């Protein structure tokens, strides 16, 4: 998905609101590592309008992990889902044709080994270190 105003597009958020409902995706007594979807994996693959430098600790936008906290931790991890490292294509609109091809090749390669990846640590310490 395209990162849109530091979040997922409304249509994707609406889908999550309708599908990830109490009793199916979460229960207030069973959340995070004990959540109802703990046998599932998630991977956010998205594009940004800004460059990678625009999503660093030193930038005005802050680290991309800060942007991902509500989506990966607040939605996926809350439901018990294990979260894989995101796949981010920074500013493809402003990249050369060669760079965009490299982005697609990297995505293709990642998909080949996806099931061997270890989930990230969804603790606040990991996101905000």
Automatic annotation (TrEMBL):
Family statement: Belongs to the NAD(P)H dehydrogenase (quinone) family.
Gene name of the record: Nqo2_1
Domain Flavodoxin-like fold: 1-111
Keyword Oxidoreductase assigned: yes
Organism: Lanius ludovicianus
Keyword Cell wall biogenesis/degradation attributed: no
Matching Pfam families: Flavodoxin_2
UniProt entry keywords in alphabetical sequence: Oxidoreductase
The protein, known as: NQO2 dehydrogenase
Membrane-spanning parts: none
Alphabetical list of SUPFAM superfamilies matching this protein: Flavoproteins
Any GO CC annotation of this UniProt entry: cytosol
GO-annotated molecular function: NAD(P)H dehydrogenase (quinone) activity
InterPro entries with a match to the protein in the record: Flavodoxin_fold, Flavoprotein-like_sf, NAD(P)H_dehydrogenase_qn
């Amino acid at each position: 998905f395209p990162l849109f105003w530091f979040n997922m597009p409304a249509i994707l958020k609406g889908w999550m609101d309708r599908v990830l409902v109490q009793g199916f995706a979460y229960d207030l007594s069973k959340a995070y590592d004990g959540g109802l979807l703990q046998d599932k994996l998630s991977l956010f693959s998205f594009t940004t309008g800004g460059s990678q430098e625009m999503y660093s600790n030193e930038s005005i936008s802050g680290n991309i992990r800060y942007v991902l906290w509500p989506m990966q931790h607040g939605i996926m991890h809350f439901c018990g889902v294990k979260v894989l490292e995101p796949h981010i294509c920074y500013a493809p609109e402003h990249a050369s044709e060669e760079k965009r091809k490299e982005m697609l090749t990297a995505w293709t390669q990642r998909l080949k080994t996806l099931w061997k990846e270890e989930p990230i640590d969804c603790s606040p310490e990991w996101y905000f270190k």
